[in-house]
Amino acid sequence: MTISPAPGEPAAGPWRVASVHELVRLLVDGADPPAGRPWLVGVDGRSGGGKSTLAAKLHVAVSASVVIHTDDIAWHHSRFGWSELLARSVLQPIRNGQPVGYRPPGWESHGRTGVIEVPTGLDLVIIEGVGAGRRELAHLLDAVVWVQSDYAEAERRGIARDVASGVNGDRVAAASFWHSWMAEELPFLDHQRPWERAAVIVAGTPLLAHGDRQVVLALPHGGHSTPGTLRRITGLTHEAR
């Protein structure tokens, strides 16, 4: 299968299969290790494109890590107007070496229980969601991964996911919600162009055969990786090696 991205997004390549371990190396190599705080990596991509799957793989590979979903920050607040909340209440405290225990405003106003929690002592914090690599957050992140997906396949998967979960009703309601969301997502990403800030691009829809501990990746502008020293991320598990 080839990937036909949304209009305006350049097709990435050449693609190759790599271990999640190598993906981590590509994200952190060449940068000084943070002092007293974890690495902050944004996983950005289109809805239904495979962001959550990639974030989960990174979380498994780096045991001392957490995943923060921008959908949780945005819950009953705004589809894309959440960058200040994330920056002020989550990312900046993490960069300052502080723990995070945050309840977004939508949680308070709609009675959602729990808290977004980031303890100290982690090696990696993964920010996952559409717009995780937006320019307003670039100065707070150490690296961005863009998950490129086939536009038609992402839509098919996204609607099917909502139907299966019952989140947005039956297929007709789910499709209606999808197109309403896309009416905001498409111009948002066209304006933000987060793929231009990505250190690595990962294929989120099927492209090359690979295992659970692998990804299909490309470097921006068709670049080539060079051997380097794996920076100290102590939580790398044997499964990712």
Describe this structure in words.
The chain has one domain (16-240): Rossmann fold, CATH 3.40.50.300. It has 7 helices and 9 strands, in the order βαβαβααβαβββααββ. It has helices at residues 20-28, 51-61, 70-74, 83-95, 105-109, 151-165, 171-192; strands at residues 16-19, 39-45, 65-69, 100-102, 116-118, 124-128, 143-148, 200-203, 214-218. The strands form 2 sheets. It has a 7-stranded mixed beta sheet. A two-stranded antiparallel ribbon has the order 4-5. The radius of gyration is 17 Å and the shape is globular.
List strands and helices in order, with pairings.
Elements: E1 16-19, H1 20-28, E2 39-45, H2 51-61, E3 65-69, H3 70-74, H4 83-95, E4 100-102, H5 105-109, E5 116-118, E6 124-128, E7 143-148, H6 151-165, H7 171-192, E8 200-203, E9 214-218
Parallel strand pairs: 2-6, 2-7, 3-6, 7-8
Antiparallel strand pairs: 1-9, 4-5, 8-9
